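It is worth pausing here to work through a concrete case rather than discussing structure prediction in the abstract. The textbook approach is simple: state the sequence, then state the predicted structure, then interpret. We follow exactly that order.
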Amino acid sequence: MEIFNLQFNSGLVGTLPQALSRMNSLRHISLQWCNFTGTIPTWMGQLSNLKYLGLGNNAFTGEIPVQLGNLKELELLGLDDNRLSGNIEL
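Step two, the predicted structure:
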């Protein structure tokens, strides 16, 4: 699977599922406007084929994982409208 798009699903609650960490062929993750909470997991930085990561408009908290800087193919990163702090270097 290359595209994982579940945006605008307010019924999705809790933290990001660990199962995503094993989907190494993902190029596009779109999870905006859901009700995800907790921190953004560090394993997201291991999804090396990602070109698009949309996690905006959720309720994520904490530091932006520095591991996101490992996503060298990333063209768009959406983290807007969460409660995140910190910086990343791409």
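Step three, interpretation. Residues 41 and 48 are 14 Å apart (CA to CA). The mean pLDDT is 95.
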